[in-house]
């Protein structure tokens, strides 16, 4: 399970998802509860092991003492594979909890990895964000994405990538920092039930053969300039870089891009 935070039940604002926001600690509880609902669903479907990767921001948001003890947790950063750290071809499914829509889409807390720093990402010329890249990397391992939870725009984005993925909208976007919320108990019940159903009826995942092309348009020309020091990375214009390779190599390389960007810039977070 890859657990993000912006798409968690009840959360709509930076104060909910970023330390030291006034509601961040409550947000951590709600995030852990959403993950626990999915864990219960997984075990109801017959899972024998669940690995949870904390994939949001500092990647130390989930509360280990409140997490279902049947699961194992990867916490902290940096991680070479970022949001899919720990995933291997030995797993039967990927579950995405608390995800959000890509940059430029009017979804709750929408952005792509680094907020203002990344304007757009393309995978083989298709606009994408965290959802599309995770789906492609999981498919490259031969592991299907079974479920995604988040706001309705995130769910729609996943369906545009793969209509076989089950989705649970836990809120409906009214604007970037406003949503109509699904009641917490109802949301948790839906996550648990849908996770169990999705894992009982998995569809196989087929990754496109051959190399893929990843293109990123940054806010800063300085970032693009520094990234061209990495072999294989080329600039399309002052702020856009592109690179070709195996999907898993690209996913790991993109996480290196993020670390370079963090070192080069001093812009505040996406909110």
Tell me what you see in this structure.
The protein has helices spanning 14-17, 24-44, 130-140, 152-161, 184-200, 221-227, 247-264; strands spanning 2-3, 50-54, 71-74, 94-99, 118-123, 126-128, 145-151, 166-175, 178-181, 212-218, 234-237, 240-245. It has 271 residues and is of the alpha/beta class. The chain has a domain at 2-112 and 130-200: Rossmann fold (3-Layer(aba) Sandwich). The chain has a 7-stranded mixed beta sheet with strand order 3-2-1-4-7-8-9, sandwiched between helices. β7, α4 and β8 (166-175) form a beta-alpha-beta unit. α2 (24-44) packs parallel to α5 (184-200) and α6 (221-227) packs across α7. It is globular. The model has no long low-confidence stretch (mean pLDDT 96).
Distance between the termini: 26 Å
The side-by-side strand order for the widest beta sheet comes to: 3-2-1-4-7-8-9
Structural class, from secondary structure content?
alpha/beta
Which CATH C-level class of the domain at 2-112 and 130-200 is it? Answer: Alpha Beta
InterPro entries: DppA_N, Peptidase_M55, Peptidase_M55_sf
GO molecular function: metal ion binding
Protein name: D-amino peptidase
Pfam family, one: Peptidase_M55
């Amino acid at each position: 399970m890859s657990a993000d935070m912006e798409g968690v039940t009840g959360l709509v604002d930076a104060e909910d998802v970023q330390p030291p926001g006034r509601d961040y600690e409550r947000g951590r509880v709600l995030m852990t509860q959403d993950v626990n609902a999915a864990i219960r669903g997984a075990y109801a479907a017959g899972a024998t092991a669940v690995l949870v990767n904390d994939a949001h921001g500092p990647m130390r948001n989930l509360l280990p003492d409140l997490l279902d003890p049947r699961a194992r947790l990867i916490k902290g950063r940096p991680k070479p594979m970022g949001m899919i750290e720990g995933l291997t071809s030995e797993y039967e499914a990927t579950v995405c909890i608390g995800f959000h829509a890509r940059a430029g889409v009017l979804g709750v807390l929408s952005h792509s990895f680094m907020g203002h720093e990344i304007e757009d990402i393309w995978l083989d010329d298709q606009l994408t964000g965290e959802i599309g890249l995770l789906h492609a990397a999981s498919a490259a391992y031969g592991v299907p994405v079974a479920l995604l939870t988040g706001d309705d725009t995130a769910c729609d984005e996943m369906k545009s990538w793969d209509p076989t993925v089950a989705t649970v909208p836990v809120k409906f976007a009214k604007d970037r920092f406003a949503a109509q919320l699904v009641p917490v108990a109802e949301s948790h019940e839906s996550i648990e039930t849908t996770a169990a159903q999705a894992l009982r009826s998995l569809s196989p995942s087929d990754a496109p053969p051959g190399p893929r092309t990843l293109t990123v348009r940054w806010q800063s020309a300085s970032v693009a300039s520094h990234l061209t020091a990495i072999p294989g990375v080329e600039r399309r214009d002052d702020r856009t870089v592109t690179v070709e390779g195996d999907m898993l190599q690209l996913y790991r390389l993109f996480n290196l891009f993020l670390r370079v960007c963090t070192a080069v810039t001093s812009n505040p977070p996406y909110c």
